């Protein structure tokens, strides 16, 4: 049991670390685009440098997105099972908590509260880090949209257009493409748990 718990915590921590690292990399790409400004005289040398940087950004974005897909593939089974089980577990935990409160069994009440809080913490951790990753990926598109492309020559305009096309589709981190991980999903999970808890109370 100890090693299983250790593995679970390590897997959760690794997801948080990888998602944070990818988020920061996407944020760096967005900042690189935002900090490109035309000069008083756009010399061929400066224009060529900006063009090379934009080409590198396109390549880096494709590479980072491949890593995001790899992260999804690695964590699909774990996240899908965790979110599903946590929703059911939270419902039954609240149901048990109700009976312990009625019995004034404060020892079990404390254990149930700790259990419920740990479930909420784990679920919110996954949704929070996935939401940040979603936001930073969308930030690259926003940075390209705000780029002063009208002040540059045609090759740079084409590169900016390519970045905008490449990033225009909204990305939402998901498990198997079925269970989205973001803050609205966290609200949905809590709402579903409370609905089933209410249903259990009504039939018992």
Biggest sheet architecture: 2 strands, antiparallel
**Rg result:** 23 Å
* Main sheet: strand order: 1-2
Helix content percent band:
over 70%
Task: Tell how many strands the DSSP assignment holds.
Answer: 2
N-to-C SSE string, H for helix and E for strand? HHHHEEH
Structural class estimated from helices and strands:
mainly alpha
Strand content: under 5%
Q: In DSSP terms, counting alpha (H) and pi (I) runs of 4 or more, how many helices? A: 5
Mean pLDDT: 83
Terminal Cα separation, in Å? 33 Å
Provide the low-confidence segments as ranges.
Answer: none
**What is the overall shape?**
elongated
Structural write-up:
82% of the residues lie in helices and 2% in strands. The chain is built from 5 helices and 2 strands, in the order ααααββα. The chain has a two-stranded antiparallel ribbon. The chain is an all-alpha fold and 204 residues long. The mean pLDDT is 83. One of its GO terms (biological process) is signal transduction.
Set out the fold topology.
Blueprint: H1 2-34, H2 44-102, H3 106-145, H4 154-167, E1 174-175, E2 179-180, H5 183-203
Helix pairs in contact: 1-2, 1-3, 2-3, 2-4, 2-5, 3-4
Keywords: Cell membrane, Membrane, Olfaction, Receptor, Sensory transduction, Signal, Transducer, Transmembrane, Transmembrane helix
Subcellular location: Cell membrane
Protein name: Odorant receptor 67a
Keywords:
Odorant receptor 67a; cell membrane; two-stranded antiparallel sheet; receptor; elongated; membrane; mainly alpha; 204 residues; single chain
